[in-house]
């Protein structure tokens, strides 16, 4: 099963499986600045990506739901941006990590003898934190600068306060 999935994800084997560093998840952090359009975009993006790299109907349904929850959390906690970005990694780790044990062997986390479900959740949460709380928070900080956001706002872009 893993060989088939690695053949499908020829471009980047790190985006599918027990360790998922999906750099596109950094866009989830932008929901703190742009709100519902980003929430909808990352949800739809997750749906289209999972439908294209079809693993199972479970992945096609629950992956986008995890993105929806994560982006909504960031939007709701936008006054505390770094906390919001870290909080967003948790639903992705729990939801996606929870069902990926059906398809993949869990990763070895520092040689600890962890239950498969726990190891997968930890792995996915850590990967999501890199994408959202590190890369995404940096992107959010850059986009929030007045020199970047003010010209966009003057052209009618709606920005959350």
State the total count of DSSP E strands: 0
Number of helices: 7
Shape: elongated
H and E order: HHHHHHH
What structural class is derived from the secondary structure elements?
mainly alpha
Multimeric organization? single chain
Describe the structure.
With 161 residues, this protein is an all-alpha fold. The chain has one domain (22-154). It has helices spanning 2-8, 31-34, 36-52, 57-76, 81-100, 116-143, 146-154. The longest helix has 28 residues, at 116-143. It is elongated and about 55 Å long. Mean pLDDT is 86; it is low at 1-12.
Please outline what is shown here.
By secondary structure, this protein is an all-alpha fold.
Write the layout of secondary structure elements.
Elements: H1 2-8, H2 31-34, H3 36-52, H4 57-76, H5 81-100, H6 116-143, H7 146-154
Helix pairs in contact: 3-4, 4-5, 5-6
Task: List the main descriptive attributes of the protein structure presented here.
0% strand, mainly alpha, 161 residues, 7 helices, disordered N terminus
């Amino acid at each position: 099963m893993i060989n088939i999935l690695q053949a499908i994800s020829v471009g980047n084997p790190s985006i599918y499986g027990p360790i998922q560093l999906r750099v596109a998840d950094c866009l989830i952090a932008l929901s703190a600045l742009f709100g519902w359009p980003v929430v909808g975009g990352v949800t739809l993006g997750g749906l289209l990506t999972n439908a294209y790299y079809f693993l199972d109907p479970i992945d096609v349904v629950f992956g986008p739901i995890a993105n929806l929850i994560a982006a909504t959390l960031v939007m709701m906690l936008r006054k505390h941006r770094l906390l919001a970005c870290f909080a967003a990694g948790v639903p992705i780790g729990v939801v996606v990590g929870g069902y990926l044990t059906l398809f993949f062997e869990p990763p070895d986390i520092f040689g600890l003898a962890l239950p498969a479900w726990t190891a997968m959740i930890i792995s996915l949460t850590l990967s999501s934190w890199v994408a959202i709380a590190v890369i995404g928070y940096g992107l959010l900080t850059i986009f929030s600068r007045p020199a970047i956001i003010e010209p966009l706002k003057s052209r009618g872009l709606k920005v959350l306060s």
